[in-house]
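ingest -> validate -> predict -> emit
validate: passed (alphabet ok, no gaps, 119 aa)
predict: started
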Amino acid sequence: QVQLVESGGGLVQAGGSLRLSCAASGRTFSANRMGWFRQAPGREREFVAAILWSDGNTAYANSVKGRFTISRDNAKKTVFLQMNSLQPEDTAVYYCAREFGIGSAWGSWGQGTQVTVSS
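emit:
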């Protein structure tokens, strides 16, 4: 069974940067895509970024495009989210998830890591 563990969240001032990590555990690991999502208080969870595990092709929400970068280390079964130029509206719990196959639902959700951006 695959488990995902996020880390790297914290408190940062507006304009600052954070790098989130998501490490996958389990004897066998495979994925079509790995993704980052976030949920702010009182709001629904929203898509942030995703990366195709095979070739690294990426996709981003418009709200983070140009500021956030998703990357992966296949050997370490880890996906990263580099977040630059953070704004208070980026404050949320950030989750990583796995899309097992093409068109499958996102699953294997991690426990989340809190990102707080102060103004």
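The chain is about 0% helix and 50% strand.
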